[in-house]
Amino acid sequence: MPSRNVVVTGASGYMGSRLIPLLLARGHRVRGVVRDGSQGKLPSGCEAIVANVLDGDTWGPRLHPADTLVHLVGVPHPSPAKARQFVEIDLRSVKEAARVAANAGIGHFVYVSVAHPAPAMKAYIEVRTACEEVIRDTGLNATILRPWYVLGPGHRWPLALIPFYKLAELIPATAGGARRLGLVRLGQMTAALTHAVEHPAEGFKVVEVPAIREAARMLQSPLGAFPPGR
After folding, report:
1. DSSP string covering 118-172, please?
2. pLDDT tens digits for 18-50?
3. Contact assessment for residue 86 and residue 95, using Cβ atoms and an 8 Å cutoff
4. CATH classification of 5-153+182-220, choosing from 3.90.1280.20, 3.40.50.12780, 3.40.50.720, 3.30.70.1290?
5. Alpha-carbon dihedral of residues 171, 177, 180, 183, nearest 10 degrees?
6. pLDDT tens for residues 163-218?
7. What are phi and psi of 76, to 5 degrees?
């Protein structure tokens, strides 16, 4: 598996801070886009690109020699009350990231969207769907991962719903939706992101929850667990 040169936005956040050590352990070079003052939050071994992620001109010229951009910027703990923030942060950051990635000739754009359609979080889904279209319109090779909810530290309340998911998966009328809107664990998500980095898409690829789980299983299997070059 060839080593990748990866830039991660949202590098010090919930998902980025767990993804970067995994990428580094597998032999990839990783740089993280962070605002000034957050350099110390980056995992050891990750180089900092100090910039305003909402202004691509502050970090786009520094993408080279990256071949992969993983975009993880987003409003934490989404809720209907944050609809305006979704537009001002999530959508704006994707527009800037896609623009600078296209200008820099980035070979692969990786983005975490959200599973849809769904009966809740209408504003969040609308913005994330718009983000997907922005990326598609650039013509970049892109992998779009669509989890519904990522379980991890501070994000565990949906564990109580697992019995209802199991029941829904047994009923033909609800099985498809239950699988598509299933829960994934943070370790599965970071493994699936790593798998996406190591297996760049050709064109526009969407990875739903069942495929996220499968990609994580493949990466975590004995054959996939070794760093590149081993």
Report:
1. -SS-HHHHHHHHHHHHHHHHHT--EEEE--SEEEBTTB-GGGGGHHHHHHHHHSH
2. 999 999 999 999 999 999 999 999 999 999 999
3. no
4. 3.40.50.720
5. -70
6. 544 555 657 766 565 566 778 999 999 999 999 999 999 999 999 999 999 999 99
7. -70, 150
Contact 150, 184 (CB under 8 A): yes
Based on the number of CB atoms within 10 Å of its own CB, is 130 exposed (0-12), middle (13-18) or buried (19 or more)?
middle
Would you say 66 and 3 are in contact if contact means Cβ atoms under 8 Å apart?
no
Q: What is the largest CA-CA distance in the chain?
A: 52
Domain residue limits, the chain: 5-153+182-220
**């699936």: which residue's tokens?**
192
3-state secondary structure of 155: strand
Model-level pTM? Answer: 0.89
Beta carbons of 141 and 108 less than 8 angstroms apart? yes
Question: Strands 142-145, 47-50: parallel, antiparallel or unpaired by DSSP?
Answer: unpaired
Beta strands at 183-185 and 108-112: parallel, antiparallel or unpaired: unpaired
Determine which helix (DSSP H) or strand (DSSP E) holds 160, and give its type and residue range: none
Based on its alpha-carbon atoms, the radius of gyration of the chain, rounded to whole angstroms, reads 17
Residue 218, helix vs strand vs coil: helix
Host H or E run for residue 67: none
In one letter, which amino acid is 106? I
**62: which 2 tokens?**
């520094």
Using the CB atoms, write b or e for 2-38: b if 16+ within 10 Å.
eebbbbbbbbbbbbbbbbbebbbebebbbbbbbeeee
